[in-house]
Backbone:
């Protein structure tokens, strides 16, 4: 054998041997075998292969805990109560934990490994969450940066309440080598159980929005997981004060069409404040105008923050929080009480909560899913 | 250049799939220490300093926040600040940063014609920290790459 080859072959041989040793050790040392996960006091018992994160282990069993970051511990969405002692909270969990969470043994499912039998608590509604295979039926441009995506569900139906959201599964694309999930409110009506409609605004640098805007085509197959979320219409006579901007339109489109179509919540007066910068950023104006013309208890208040003179805008002008403030002080009837419904980024939601509280709404009557 | 163990660890964490799916290096084939050294040289050539640019980016972010998710005009620029649920750790393990994305483009340019990183500046709280403390502008092709020329045009002139 040539002496030139001896060195590289020796190194390759040692590396292969070490890799083999590591693989064998891993098989024995990290083999936790079959373990049991007891959920909600034994209402559901799972037998699972140990060693992986709780989030993925539950997902493999068809129990989908919400997560927006793919298990990297950077969204804090996958909180669940772990009754079994699994050690102290990890540094990666602490930013998302309140003192109350720590006291109640709330953990991030993506950070906890299944290394022994576990007893956990999950909201019952997570048991009905499913993964749906869908086909992209249509993609429409609503503005230059917002698309309406209609997904047709293959062989299943989806039951949800207006206001809830799904997680869109983004497959690897471009330089991306792994899949991601992002949350989007459904804009479709709950009565249409064969479709899911989403409104997706392009976010510079955004993984899911870039995929939807630049890669997704009609006819493509797409997976969604859901429905998730507590954001829904509350069955009281109180008037709804709804506020949104951009793709935050989605849950309100669903709620309004559902209420209009079914006559649900007949006592509720509905005020809907929708903000955009210019007419180029505004959409569904005709649909909303038609709805308010045929539905006396619905009041649509679109507002532009920076209308251009040539746009000849006749509606309200100002930031949506300023417009909301003006209407709450003068136009909105408070006789039956008020409830706030918000959809948007955390910053927008916080600003609206402040305006609503200043105008007498209490925080327990202001509803939102703060997921941006 | 001999790297310290903390730097080696940080550079590992910049790879795709560790902290974020896309990572911080884009399609740049240069090692991170070389990216930092070349951007430091470029900053010096352009007469920029990292602290001033980072403060300029913070001002842009704060201006964008006033738009509540919608774009807002700031002088000759249009700024949009969007935030999301959760936080991201710095690859150097010296802080956690709110997830957000700020975009800045010329107000008279149509959004459809804007190319991220070329005529649209895109950054986050984590980008500002990486720039200020670690002089790391991210690799070319990274969605949050801060091109020094673009920084001079947008983060310093306002």
Residues:
């Amino acid at each position: 054998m040539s002496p030139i080859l001896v060195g590289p072959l020796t190194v390759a041989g040692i590396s292969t041997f070490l890799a083999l040793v590591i693989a064998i050790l891993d098989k024995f040392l990290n083999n936790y075998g079959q373990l049991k996960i007891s959920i909600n006091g034994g209402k559901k018992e799972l037998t699972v292969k140990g060693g992986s994160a709780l989030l993925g282990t539950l997902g493999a069993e068809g129990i989908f805990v919400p997560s927006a970051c793919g298990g990297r511990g950077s969204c804090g969405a996958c909180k669940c109560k772990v009754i079994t002692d699994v050690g102290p909270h990890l540094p990666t969990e602490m930013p998302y934990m309140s003192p109350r969470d720590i006291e109640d043994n709330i953990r991030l499912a993506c950070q906890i490994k299944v290394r022994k039998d576990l007893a956990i608590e999950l909201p019952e509604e997570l048991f009905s969450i499913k993964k749906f295979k869908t086909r992209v039926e249509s993609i429409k441009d609503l503005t230059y940066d917002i698309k309406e995506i209609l997904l047709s569900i293959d062989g299943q139906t989806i039951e949800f309440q207006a206001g809830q959201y799904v997680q869109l599964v983004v497959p690897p694309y471009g330089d991306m080598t792994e899949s991601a999930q992002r949350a989007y409110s459904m804009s479709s009506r709950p009565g249409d159980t064969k479709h899911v409609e989403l409104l997706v605004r392009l976010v510079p640098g955004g993984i899911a929005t870039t995929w939807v805007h630049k890669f997704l085509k009609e006819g493509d197959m797409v997976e969604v997981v859901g429905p998730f979320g507590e954001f829904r219409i509350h069955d009281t006579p109180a008037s709804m004060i709804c506020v949104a901007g951009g793709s935050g339109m989605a849950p309100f489109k669903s709620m309004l069409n559902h209420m209009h179509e079914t006559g649900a919540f007949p006592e509720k007066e509905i005020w809907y404040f929708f903000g955009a910068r210019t007419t180029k950023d505004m959409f569904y104006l005709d649909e909303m105008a038609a709805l308010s013309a045929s539905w006396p208890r619905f009041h649509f208040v679109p507002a532009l923050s920076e209308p251009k003179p040539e746009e000849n805008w006749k509606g309200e002008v100002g930031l949506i929080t300023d417009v909301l403030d003006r209407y709450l002080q003068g136009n909105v009837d408070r006789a039956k009480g008020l409830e706030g419904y918000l959809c948007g980024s955390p910053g927008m939601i916080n600003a609206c909560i402040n305006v609503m509280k200043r105008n007498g709404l209490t925080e327990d009557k202001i509803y939102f899913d703060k997921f941006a | 250049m001999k790297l310290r163990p903390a730097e080696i660890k940080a550079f590992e964490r910049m790879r795709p799939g560790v902290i974020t799916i896309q990572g911080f290096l884009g399609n740049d084939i240069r090692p991170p220490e070389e990216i930092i050294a070349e951007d430091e040289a470029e900053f010096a050539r352009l007469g920029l300093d990292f602290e001033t640019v980072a403060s300029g980016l913070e001002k842009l972010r704060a201006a964008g926040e006033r738009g509540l998710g919608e774009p807002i005009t700031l002088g000759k620029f249009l700024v949009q600040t969007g935030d999301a649920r959760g936080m991201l750790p710095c690859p150097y393990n010296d802080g956690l940063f709110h997830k957000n994305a700020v975009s800045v483009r010329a107000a008279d340019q149509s959004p459809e014609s804007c190319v991220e990183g070329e005529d649209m500046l895109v950054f986050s709280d984590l980008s500002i920290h990486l720039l200020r403390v670690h002089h790391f502008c991210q690799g070319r092709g990274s969605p949050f790459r801060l091109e020094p020329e673009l920084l001079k045009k947008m983060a310093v002139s306002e």
Observations:
- Chain A touches chain B at residues 68-70, 72, 74-77, 92, 95-96, 144-145, 175-178, 180, 203-207, 210, 245-246, 248, 275-277, 281, 305-306, 319-321, 344-348, 351, 370-372 (CB under 8 Å).
- Residues 3-29 of chain A form the longest helix (27 residues).
- The CA atoms of residues 203 and 249 of chain A lie 16 Å apart.
- Chain A has three domains: 34-126, 129-228, 239-368.
